[in-house]
């Protein structure tokens, strides 16, 4: 097993979506590249850290952890030097990581509650992208309430997308024998259309209507896929296209 690269391929799309959505509304800042490096590298580093917690052979994960830590630390130091308020963000993310550790110790990392923690971490990154791009060297993120409405809209759209994807994939693979997941997945997919319509109105018509289209597509895929067995790889490709559709809709809405 490759202990340097986590085998959860879908997680990389979860990491990439908030970065891509953040770029839609963020003013350019060279720190964004450093933030992206830190954000991506923290994932395999945390995977190695959890491996040392749950594995019967924790020594396999020590070198991967050290290797990724060597990437994360310089990036984080640069970010903290330019944006000291990120220390508070890092503290909150560390508390969320402790929840991951709890599930790892119980060998229950696939629990839906643990997935919700990951969704929260990813969705919040849209706002963090904007905040880092906007600048500010204070220790307190006093600009929390000054974020444009469109930033918060994209945070919520990101959360809706990731939640729907998580439930959909679980209902097809790990929880395919539990009809509750299938029902919940359909309910969330249908409800997301109504929520997206409200967010589209907040964004502003007519451009905001672009934001609704991906959720119509996701509701359709939830209803159609699952009627016959599919390989995990095929399911993952479809989910990736759903993520791309969300990004395209955000770009079109911003024109």
What distinguishing features does this structure have?
255 residues; mainly alpha; flat
Number of domains: 2
- How many helices? 9
**What's the total number of strands?**
0
Which class do the helix and strand fractions yield? Answer: mainly alpha
Explain this structure to me?
There is one protein chain. The longest helix has 25 residues, at 179-203. Helices cover 74% and strands 0% of the residues. The mean pLDDT is 92. It is flat, with a radius of gyration of 19 Å. By secondary structure, the chain is mainly α. It folds into two domains: 1-135, no CATH class; 148-255.
Layout of strands and helices, then pairs:
Layout lengths: L8 H17 L5 H24 L7 H21 L3 H20 L6 H23 L14 H24 L6 H25 L9 H12 L7 H23 L1
Briefly, what is this?
This protein is an all-alpha fold and 255 residues long. It has helices at 9-25, 31-54, 62-82, 86-105, 112-134, 149-172, 179-203, 213-224, 232-254.
